[in-house]
Amino acid sequence: MIPEFEKFKGFKAKSIPKEEIVSSGHRGCQGCGEVLALRMAMKALGKDIIVCSATGCMEIITSPYPHTAWNVPWIHVAFENAASVASGVEAARKVLARKGRIPKKHVDVVAIGGDGATGDIGLQWISGAMERGHDFVYICLDNEAYMNTGVQRSGCTPYGAMTTTSPPGKQSIGQVTWKKNIPQIMVAHNIPYVATASPAYFLDLMNKVKKAALVKGPAYVHIYSPCPTGWGSAGERSIEFARLAVETRVFPLYEVIEGRYIISRKINKPKPVTEYLKGQRRFRHLGEEEIQYIQRRVDAEYERLVKLAEMT
Amino acid sequence: MTKRVGMEVSIAVAEAAKLARAEVIPAYPITPQTHIVEHLSEIIADGELDAEFVPVESEHAAMSCCVGAAAAGARVFTSSSSQGLSLMSEILYIPSTMRLPMVMAVVNRALSAPISIWNDHQDIMVQRDIGWIQTFAENGQEAVDLTLHAFRVAEMKSVHLPVAVNLDGFILSHVIEPIELPDQEDVDKYLPRFKPRYKLDPRKPISMGPVGIPEIYTEAKVAHDRAIKNSKKMIVKAWKEFAEIFGREYHPIESYRTEDADLLLVTMGSISETAMTAVDAMRDRGEKVGLVRIRLWRPFPGLEFRKAIGKAKILAVVDRCLPPGAVCGPVGAEIRSFLYKIPGAPKIFSFVAGLGGRDVTVERFEEMVDKARAYAKKRPRELYEVIGVREQ
Known about the structure:
The complex is a heterodimer of chains A (about 300) and B (about 400). With about 300 residues, chain A is an alpha/beta fold. In chain A, about 35% of the residues lie in helices and about 15% in strands. The model of chain A has no long low-confidence stretch (mean pLDDT about 95). Chain B folds into two domains: about 5-245, Rossmann fold (3-Layer(aba) Sandwich); about 255-385, Rossmann fold, CATH 3.40.50.
């Protein structure tokens, strides 16, 4: 087990840090589940961090010069390379600390990116940084499409979803591929900590982000991030959809600690996926046949996860 | 007093980065740059340099890592070539406008297609407008000295820009030359500890790389343009300091036998040494030929260039890059536009030579001089000519 976890007791609702790392006044859409998740994640990390942000919604809404929502050192370089930028920051701090040029006090280096920045265009950069073993945390805020550019499909867009580049039509049901499993790709890098999290379970989310920071070496947290604008869902229902995604087993919450799978929230009596799908305009066109397919595959993937947890 | 020893130029450049006490070195292998980064990784593995060698998975990642490390306040060095430099391209523009100092040795090599590992200047000319200070070395000693100079200039408070030191692949990088490596003590005197103007530090949080809305983007770019233009006097100052400590003098533009010359060859990089031999041979025959060599390419030292060409009537500009469909090569185009409508400006002919490792011999320089003289009498249809093409 990870020795750093022993002293960590976990956050309590009453003891959530009051300090805001991502301050209000940013330009997020109403009901944005992503910035909510980001806010909680940053609260978990506190002020002794350096954030390296990929291009995307979170970068755009927090940094229109001369304004900034960031109360911690923050850098944005490009779309695909947040993990490499974080590698550079981490390497620099290592050598500067060794030379006595900066305080020895540990500072967490955090890279953040959306699902496109993480799973599509940036996959190589993240893979490289993970493989090299830099001591940093990568947080993927997955809203399941390229929302910043106007809702185009990504490799993380779920099966059947309508986006501006996976439109349903006479010859297509929308997104024809199944969601790429980025956390599993990260597990394959043999890094010490991988977790999935959801803003609907905010204490669990904060605990996982904190554990990712505590662990020595690379850590990865994949956070489900509802996007009312891109999903065609009501802004006030973002957290509800985040919860339904877990309760229907569409987005299971788990940790992989040194290769060992732990399901954070076992869903023994799952709600039918239709409860999750309805109310989101991106799934409105799906027929009974597609919904059945999604149900079967969601169940099969969950069973596989249960087996992985039993095996490891 | 340091002594000259025979040394491969790549090894010497790596030793220069070591003498400069580079702290973070992200690098990805590409021929002909490899010996530089191999040697640096050895130096670090042997504990001779306290630095982090980050063996990244691509050149794009290398430059991204450089940006992160420089933003965190470390002294950063990397090296690349050709396709690797092109892969970095997206990121190259970023540290310069963000004003993050770093040094890159660009070991010049041709660009695909067809794939070629051999030397020309197409790789860096594609990156002409990245907003880095760019210098070109003529020989091994100069490659070493320009590397040290690059760190000094990059980190000057009023400059704070990345610097690319260009050295020709194989022709320079892989040859053994007599090189004088300076003493560590002198280098430490020349290169004080890097104190960045700003860095990522939780004690004093700043946001770097924010969104440039239309109200601010132009100003950001103008500030960068002014910074690199103003850097010229600091570049010259750093060369003066260099001469005082190490005894070797460098200037933005170098002249060779230009006095009373009516025709001047204009070169960059290692072909200049062959050009000098050609000038000597032609001078021996009584031809009034000289050579002007551009060492500082960005910022372009216009005033120094104008002074160097004096009253010459004809310029034969040699480009080692062929931009298809363009008016002429980039160096030729630069000089043409700089001298346009200046009273008494010389006639300019642009030659492209030495692509993808093709030798540029003394005879080729003589051919260029003869052709430039002929074209001064009768203007050719094209403003450039590729020298040494084998016709079927």
